[in-house]
Amino acid sequence: MGRKFVVGGNWKMNGSKAMIGDILKFLKEGQLNSETEVILGVPAIYLDYVKSSVPANIEVAAQNCYKVDKGAFTGEISPLMLKDIGINWVILGHSERRQIFGESDELIAEKVAFALENGLKVIACIGETLEEREAGQTEEVVCRQTQAIAEKITDWSNVVLAYEPVWAIGTGKTATPEEAQTVHKAIREFFAKNVSADVANSIRIQYGGSVSGATCKELGKQPDIDGFLVGGASLKPEFVDIVNARA
Ligand SMILES: O=C[C@H](O)COP(=O)(O)O
C-alpha cells in the first residue's frame, strides 16, 4: 500500500480566536484533497477550541507534551490530557524545542515513546543546522536524531517523521527538491539498515522549511517526500494549495 500524503500546519506560537476563525474559514471553503491527511499543530491554549470547530477531515495536534502522565511539572501538559480532550496527535522534537528550549535527542525520544504508549500519534522532527550542513554532517545528524528514537520505540506505525533543515525554517530558503530528496532517501536507508525493510517502506517522511504554494508541487513529486510540515504558510490561504500539492 502506498504512503498517504500527510500535510501538517504548525501554527507555532501564533493565533488568536479571530485569526483561528479566518484560518478555519479558508480551510472549510477550500477543496482539500481527500487523499491527503491534514493535521493542524495548534498552541495548547487553543486546542480544545480548534478541536470543537474544525471540520471532521482535519486532525488537530499539540505542539509538545511531557514524558509523564501527571504531577509537579508546572507549565507542561501530558499525553493523557491531550487524549482527554480528544486530541490524537502531537508534534515532538521540533527544532525550536531543540534549539531554543534545549531539548536533547534523549528527552525527545522519551517523549515520543511516552506519547505513543498513551495512544497519541506523533510527528517527530529532525534536521541539521546550517553549520552542520556546511560541515558535511547532515546525514550523520538526522541519523543520530532518528537513532535516539529507535532506541526507545519498536512500533513506528503511528509515527510520521518530519525532516526540517534548521536553515530552511522561517528563512524563505526552501531546500531544493533534490536536496530534500537526498536526505529523505538517506533516512529511509537508515530505517532499512537499522529498523526493518517494512518500516523503511511504510514510514511517512515530511519535508519542512519554508514550504510555500510556489515550492510545494516540485517537492511533492519527490519519491521519498510524503508530505510537508508547514509553518508560516499554514496561517495563510495558500495552505490549501500545499495540502493539494499532489492533486
Ligand atoms: O514546523 C514547521 C517548520 O518549522 C517550518 O516553518 P516555516 O514553514 O515557517 O519555514
From TrEMBL:
The keyword Cytoplasm does not apply. It catalyses: D-glyceraldehyde 3-phosphate = dihydroxyacetone phosphate. The keyword Cytoplasm does not apply. Gene3D superfamilies: Aldolase class I. Pathway: Carbohydrate biosynthesis; gluconeogenesis; Carbohydrate degradation; glycolysis; D-glyceraldehyde 3-phosphate from glycerone phosphate: step 1/1. It comes from Molorchus minor. InterPro entries: Aldolase_TIM, TIM_sf, TrioseP_Isoase_bac/euk, Triosephosphate_isomerase, Triosephosphate_isomerase_AS. SUPFAM superfamilies: Triosephosphate isomerase (TIM) (SSF51351). Belongs to the triosephosphate isomerase family. Keywords: Gluconeogenesis, Glycolysis, Isomerase. This is Triosephosphate isomerase. HAMAP family: TIM_B (MF_00147_B). Homodimer. Its EC number is 5.3.1.1.
